[in-house]
């Protein structure tokens, strides 16, 4: 059987979700990390693919994004990320889960600090642009499905016009 990136992501997510179905109380941090890594991998694939149905499925009804200067509603955020920009094409959206914390005792809510690396190719032939975001994201289990509750930008930086990020891991 040939596995696509989507199939591998789905299998990783199912494996992580299985850990949460066990009896014996709330999941531990290792299980929480595994779950959040799988969810963020799926999110990154959806971002590059402008996959609106996945955005709709993964974001809670009252989801919001908190930026330094404004707050976006779920609808505003989905509208903003659902369509490719005519000015640049998103070619990379990699996510690394930096920290995980349970939010409460039941194990049905987690907070993660994540790093997002984006690369954009401008349509006018200029050099690539790079963007780094650090966000604090809250996730909650609703029935058998995990959904993002919020994403708060806690740091970001942009490099463009041929300037490359000063990180070895880029």
Written overview of the protein:
The chain is an alpha+beta fold. It has helices spanning 5-20, 29-49, 52-58, 74-81, and strands spanning 59-66, 71-73, 88-102, 109-122, 129-142, 145-159. The radius of gyration is 17 Å and the shape is globular. The model is unreliable at 1-5 and 7-24 (pLDDT under 50).
Chart the SSEs and their pairings.
Elements: H1 5-20, H2 29-49, H3 52-58, E1 59-66, E2 71-73, H4 74-81, E3 88-102, E4 109-122, E5 129-142, E6 145-159
Parallel strand pairs: 1-6
Antiparallel strand pairs: 1-2, 3-4, 4-5, 5-6
Helix pairs in contact: 1-2
Task: Report the radius of gyration as a whole number of Å.
Answer: 17 Å
Mean pLDDT: 87
Specify the helix fraction band: 25-40%
How many angstroms separate the termini? 33 Å
Question: Helix/strand/pairing class, anyone?
Answer: alpha+beta
Low-confidence stretches: 1-5, 7-24
User: Proportion of β residues?
Assistant: 35-45%
Tell me about the largest β-sheet.
6 strands, mixed
Reading side by side through the largest sheet, how are the strands ordered? 2-1-6-5-4-3
Total helices: the number is 4
Helix/strand order:
HHHEEHEEEE
Task: Provide keyphrases for this structure.
about 170 residues; alpha+beta; 6-stranded mixed sheet; 4 helices; 6 strands; globular; disordered N terminus
Q: Summed up, what is this model?
A:
With about 170 residues, this protein is of the alpha+beta class. It has helices spanning about 5-20, 30-50, 50-60, 75-80; strands at about 60-65, 70-75, 90-100, 110-120, 130-140, 145-160.
């Amino acid at each position: 059987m040939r596995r696509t990136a989507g199939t591998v992501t789905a299998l990783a997510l199912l494996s992580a979700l299985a850990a949460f179905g066990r009896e014996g109380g709330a999941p531990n941090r290792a299980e929480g990390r595994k779950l959040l890594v799988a969810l963020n991998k799926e999110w990154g694939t959806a971002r590059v693919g402008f996959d609106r149905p996945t955005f709709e499925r993964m974001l809670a009804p009252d989801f919001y994004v908190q930026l330094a200067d404004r707050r976006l509603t779920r609808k505003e955020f989905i509208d903003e990320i659902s369509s490719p920009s005519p000015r640049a094409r998103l070619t990379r959206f990699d996510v690394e889960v930096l920290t995980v914390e349970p939010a409460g005792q039941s194990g049905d809510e987690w907070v993660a600090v994540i790093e997002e690396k984006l690369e954009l190719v401008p349509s006018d032939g200029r050099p690539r642009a790079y963007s780094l975001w650090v966000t604090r994201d809250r996730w909650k289990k609703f029935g058998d499905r995990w959904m993002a509750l919020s994403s708060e930008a806690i740091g970001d930086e942009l490099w463009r016009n041929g300037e490359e990020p000063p990180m070895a891991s880029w």
